Structures are given as structure tokens and as C-alpha cells.
TrEMBL record:
Organism field: Parnassius mnemosyne
Keyword line: Hydrolase, Metal-binding, Nuclease, Nucleus
Single GO MF descriptor: hydrolase activity
Name listed for the protein in its UniProt record: DDE Tnp4 domain-containing protein
UniProt keyword annotation of Cell membrane present: no
Lineage: Eukaryota, Metazoa, Ecdysozoa, Arthropoda, Hexapoda
DDE Tnp4 domain location: 107-272
Name of one Pfam family that matches: DDE_Tnp_4
Gene Ontology CC: nucleus
Cofactor: a divalent metal cation
Intracellular or extracellular location(s): Nucleus
Length: 345
């Protein structure tokens, strides 16, 4: 983060986090409170380590981080915006068009490991025998979040994580205002606008996921999976960058679910803030940090060299489902279009 952006955030947060001096002692300045919080998000240092660095008690550190993250959620909430009308979605599709036409966003979800919540029993217990909350997100082609939902999920099946999410509810009710289906070049049928996802999500009219299993080189299904992977790698990069920069996500977050959710959402908002910044973007994501596609091959970015073996950010597992006939037919039509337009990149 550049010095100027630090000052911009400080100016926005100061009215919410600045405390008054008393006759007994001076208040901790807002600048120190913000620096402490950013240090915690960037390093994941324990409160004991921060105690030696900032000369504050563990209790004060915990309180400051919680209050500052709550303030970040308030002042940066507009950094993550879902397109509100068809034209906005079509602009998102334009960015994806050369990779996967009619794709408007890449979707993914992560379990975020936390400490065992007080008196929760198995409420937050997941398939990897850890306690976690779930982050579901939509990401556009510019590597920015357009939707993020950090939920303290109850103990539901992994296949039900998406079905119990705010995103699923909006999609089911038609509240997303996605564009009406329209024909693709080489296809007479009207094709829906879709999110691309992996096998953790259900195949639906507006959600495309890979064909399961292995397929011969050059086959229709393998070609479709390759195109979808090239589009979905965007969201994989976003989560990778976040865990590389905000290292609090690299190990289990030793906080209760509500405070851990604030930590994760603060990272999401700061990610978009830094991506939108002219002075911080190249510091946050330097050249070569992201994956890139050359001659239909994915060239790994340097962020992949910094990933821990046992991160607190863990993928949702693939879930076997019987797909409905209509979404399956739509996927087959997309695959046929890709085969007939091998020059698309």
C-alpha cells in the first residue's frame, strides 16, 4: 500500500476509530490503530508478537483490530459492487468474451479455518474435521470481487453450502438482473449468460462447470473444460493473491466466527481498494504476479510460489450430483460452439 493510500484510508476511518484523551492517559492515535490492524492482516502475527512490537496488551490489540475492521467494513463497503442492470453485466461479459463468451463472472468458495467456537458443538465443523466459515465470491475479469458473502455456515453438507448462500437466493429469485439469453456466433439457440465454477457447485442454467472425468485430447468435452478453466482461473488467482498478501488467511484464524468474518471481509474490501488505486495497484500485484494465458497455455504467476502447504483458505470439495437435462444441454451447446470456433482465446 502506498503512503498516500494509507492516508486516504486513515482519513476515512479516523472519525470512527479515534478515541478521546482522558485525565489519566492519552488515547492511542487512529494512525497507530490502523497500522496495527494492517500489520495483523498482512502478517497474521499473533497478538503476543504484536504486543512486543506495539507495546500494548493482548486485550487492547484484540479490541483495536475488531473495531478497526468493523470501521473498514463501513467506509469501504462500496468497493465491492454487484452489477445492477443488464448493461453492467454485458460490460463484464465483454472482458471474458475472448475466453468464454457469455461468461459474466467466475465463482468460487473457500472454507476459512477458525478456532473452535464457544459452545457451538459441531455447528461449524466441516468435512476436513476442522471448524470453518465459508467465503463465496464472484470475481470479474479485472481480478476484483463483485460479490462476496462471508457466512457463518451451520453444519450443512458440502453440497448445500451454495444452496444456503445469499448468492443462490438472489439467483433463484431472479434478483441479479442478468441479461436475457441471446444467440452466440455459430449457434442459433439463445444462450444464457453464466457464471463459471468448479465441481463444488451445481450445474444450472446460469452456472457452468466442467464435464467430470478424463476426456481425450481434442474432444468436445476436453475443449470445453479447457475454456472454462481459463475463465475460472481468474477467481483462483484472486484467492491466491489474497492469501499471499493478507497472510492472516494462511493459518487458522484464532477468533470467534463473527470476528473472523470481519477479518475476511476486510481483506476482500482492501483487495478491491488496492486494485482500484493508481498508486498501490502495482505494489499490490507487481508484474508477473498473476497467471497469464499464452498460446492457450496457462503460465503460472509468482504468487503460486508463496502458497503454504496447509493454508486456512481451503477449497470446497467436488460434490457428485445428477445434473438436470436443461443445464446439461446448455453446456453441450457451449461445447459445440467452442469446437466450431477454435480460434477463440
Amino acid at each position: 500500500m502506498s503512503t498516500s493510500d494509507f492516508e486516504i484510508i486513515l482519513q476515512k476511518l479516523s472519525p470512527l476509530i479515534q478515541k478521546n484523551d482522558t485525565s489519566f492517559r492519552k488515547a492511542i492515535p487512529a494512525k497507530v490503530r490502523l497500522a496495527l490492524t494492517l500489520r495483523y492482516l498482512a502478517t497474521g502475527d499473533s497478538f503476543r508478537s504484536l504486543h512486543y512490537l506495539f507495546k500494548m496488551s493482548h486485550q487492547i490489540i484484540s479490541k483495536i483490530i475488531h473495531e478497526t475492521c468493523t470501521a473498514i467494513l463501513m467506509v469501504l463497503k462500496d468497493e465491492v459492487k454487484m452489477p445492477s442492470n443488464e448493461q453492467d453485466w454485458l460490460e463484464k461479459e465483454t472482458d471474458f468474451h475472448n475466453i468464454f463468451p457469455h461468461c459474466v463472472a467466475a465463482m468460487d468458495g473457500k472454507h476459512i479455518v477458525i478456532q473452535s467456537p464457544y459452545h457451538s458443538g459441531t455447528e461449524f465443523y466441516n468435512y476436513k474435521h476442522t471448524y470453518s466459515i465459508v467465503l463465496l465470491a464472484l470475481v470479474d475479469r479485472t481480478y476484483k470481487f463483485i460479490f462476496a458473502d462471508v457466512g457463518c455456515q451451520e453444519r450443512i453438507s458440502d453440497g448445500g453450502v451454495f444452496r444456503n448462500s445469499l448468492l443462490f437466493q438472489k439467483l433463484s429469485r431472479g434478483d441479479l438482473n442478468l441479461p436475457a439469453p441471446s444467440p452466440l456466433s455459430g449457434c442459433d439457440n439463445a444462450m444464457p449468460y453464466v457464471f463459471v465454477a468448479d465441481n463444488a457447485f451445481p450445474l444450472q442454467t446460469n452456472i457452468m462447470k466442467p464435464y467430470p472425468g478424463e476426456h481425450p485430447e481434442g474432444s468436445l468435452k476436453r475443449n470445453f473444460n479447457r475454456k472454462l478453466s481459463q475463465a475460472r482461473i481468474i477467481v483462483e488467482n484472486v484467492f491466491g493473491v489474497m492469501s499471499s498478501i493478507f497472510r492472516v488467511l494462511r493459518k487458522p484464524i484464532p477468533l470467534q466466527p463473527d470476528r473472523a468474518s470481519n477479518i475476511v471481509m476486510s481483506c476482500v474490501l482492501l483487495h478491491n481498494f488496492l486494485r482500484n488505486s493508481k498508486t498501490s495497484n502495482n505494489l499490490y500485484i507487481p508484474p508477473g504476479f498473476l497467471d497469464r494465458i499464452e498460446n492457450d497455455e496457462v503460465i503460472p504467476g509468482t504468487w503460486r510460489n508463496e502458497q503454504p502447504v496447509d493454508s486456512a483458505l481451503r477449497s470446497l470439495p467436488a460434490v457428485a450430483r445428477r445434473n438436470a437435462s436443461t443445464p446439461s444441454n446448455i453446456r453441450d451447446k457451449f461445447a459445440q460452439v467452442f469446437v466450431s470456433h477454435n480460434t477463440l482465446n
